[in-house]
Amino acid sequence: VQLQASGGGLVQSGGSLRLSCAASGSVSSIGAMGWYRQAPGKKREAVSCISTSYGARNFLDSVKGQFTISRDIAKNMVYLQMNNLRPEDTGVYYCATARSIDCSLSGNTWGPGTRVTVSS
Fold first, then answer.
1. What is the largest CA-CA distance in the chain?
2. Which of 24, 32, 94, 109 has a CA between 20 and 30 Å from the CA of residue 45?
C-alpha cells in the first residue's frame, strides 16, 4: 500500500483545512485508515481513524467536534476536515493504515506527512 497525503499549509487560528490521503496498491487489504500528527518536539499521536468498510470513526478527545474524518471508497481516499484550528494543532500530519479504529501506533503503513501550521 502506498499513501500520499496533501492539503497542509499555513492558516490563521480559527481557520480550516482539509487534508486528503490517496491510497494505492493493495487497498482491499486495508481495514482502517487514520490520521496522525507530530508536533514539534512531541511524539506522534493518533488524531482520528475510520473503518474502511463500515465507516466507524474514532477521534482524539481534543479534536472531537473540531475534526471530521471521512472516506471515499470508490476513490480510495480518506479526508480530514479540520475546523477552528488552533496553534496547538500545528504539526506534521500523516496518513496511515491502521489495524483498527483504535488507531494504535503499531503495524501502520505510513505515507509522507503534510505540514500544518496554525498561526495565532
1. 41
2. 24
